[in-house]
Fold this protein.
Amino acid sequence: MADVEKPDFSKPSTLTPLPSTLTPLPSTLYSCLAASAAGSPENTAFTDEKRRMSYGELLHSVDRAADMFWQSGVRKQDTVAIVLRNSMEFVIACFALAKLGAVAVPINYLVTKETEIKYILENAKCKGVVTAREHLTGYLNVKKQLPCLQFIMSVDFTGEDSVIDFRRYLTHAHYHHETWGVMAEEHGVATILYTSGTTGHPKGVLLTHHNLIENSRAAIKSLGPEKKDVFMALLPMFHTFSWTGNVIIPILLGAKTYIVRNLTPPKPWLVAMGREGVSIMLAVPQIYGVLAKEAKGFKKFFLRFWSFRKVRLCLSGAAPLSRAVKEHFEKAFRIPILEGYGLTETSPVVTLSLPGAKKHGSVGKALPGVRITVVDEHGRPLGPGAEGEICVWGPNITQGYYENPDATKELFTRDGWLKTGDIGVIDEEGFLFIRDRKKDMVIVKGLKVFPAQIEQLISAHPKVQEAAVIGIPDDAGNETMKCFCVPKKDMNIDKAELMRFIKSNMDAYKRPREVEIVQRLPKNTLQKVLKRELLKNELEKRTKIKT
């Protein structure tokens, strides 16, 4: 890839050229918020079931939180963990840390194992934790083992002496002249997001103010959202898809976001969608699939003419969107679903499919300022239509993994392109098609097999709800494939029938040799199937049989 011209990201963004007489675009997260608050202080920034906060009120709360963190000993480049459900406090804490030039470390609140909590806090060198009563126990236990952890704050005070009341401390924080200005720098790290790998400890992805803001501006330029749009933070804010799409982009626009604290039960947020006039929705494929199934009779009338009455744009990400789910939803709601592609390391958006410029099966074209290519196993760029590993270059690319030079080195090619670990094809028009995860690829007698292609075919069976295929290594160094199938509601799948279906629709070397019917697949909070859990359980089962 040495022959590909690399953009110079040290220069100012060219996504939105400004006349020389105007002030340059804000270059840090806090300055973006301050700009929107100055332009429309009375406009609603965030709302939920109980509260409504204007941009002026949000900025004031962020300034007070910055003073509060300063009083607690937080300084530039210090790290503070955020362990919260979607909430205004989540946003306030992150932007206050951003003002100080400190680093937010959002942690999945479903992580409860103390060994993993300790690893992340210790690895990130967190000075403090902002959390809630429901998540406190593990963090209080771990605090005793971590000298670096100086404070724990709770947004719903518990009365414990060792825990700081976030809201009370926020109200009584003293002004400090040191916090008057913005200490953050454009290329300074704004957040560390820990991603679970297939093996080993989670890795901390470093994302800068520049990464997040430029990715948001590029998405705005592609999709064309406006200040009058209303967003809905349905997906967890600790995930970059939701953080960029439901927090940073609306703040750049000066738009309103309705915050959903809990995904279940769905009725409260479905009612709120109509009340607040939600016009842009970001969700994972499973949510769109459930909504499409529920759109029957009176429910369909309620969903179409109340919940989705103002929705003009639906975006799907974090997992592949099947053709069946897409067609079913679009038929029921008459709203197109646009699919995107990205990963935490790319802040996260790499490509977007746009209305009037999309192809079936494609995740769209690269965002403005972002470049994509595919390479072979030797890192050589491949031409249109050739299958290879997807690599990305752009202002949205991470600096690497925190305190992990080996993993960082492995993440990039020799000339600085980020290796996604995904297999794909780029056609002559620049549309990207995802084939599979490189790490999920199975080698069957020397032949490459991509489970995603098999899963898609098996899921087309009329009785199959979803499927997951894994490769299981044997003593000879080969791999055999096993498929886990979830039946549709109130349906029974006969293994023999399914094997006949597989045999008649698939080449011999691609066929799973085993099929297991299960009621559910292990998934993370974004409904991605945890294949590592399936493989771990399968290997443990086989070890027991041998012994």
Summary: The first helix runs from residue 29 to 39. The CA atoms of residues 318 and 398 lie 18 Å apart.
